[in-house]
Specification:
Length: 80
């Protein structure tokens, strides 16, 4: 579900962006979008700021792939 492209999109997004899962789809949303009716009930997976805090601004392809796999596993275990 969560791919390395999703993590790359989050890293390239606004500093306040969040990776969410809603309706079986992974999306990167800004703060204003999080308040919309179409995303009520979305599972907030990780914020860009938390992702950067964990590893920094520069990521290798391997780090991105590993983080995507870890996030995907976490969401799968939650039933997302």
């Amino acid at each position: 579900m969560i791919s390395s492209d999703d993590v790359r999109s989050l890293l390239a997004a606004d500093p306040d962006a969040v990776l969410v899962v809603i309706g079986g789809q992974v999306r990167v949303l800004g703060p204003a979008e999080l308040d919309g009716d179409d995303v009520k009930g979305a599972l907030q997976v990780i914020s860009r700021s938390q992702l950067v805090t964990d590893t920094g601004e520069r990521w290798s392809d391997r780090q991105i792939e590993e983080r995507a796999a870890a996030l995907d596993t976490a969401v799968s275990e939650l039933g997302g």
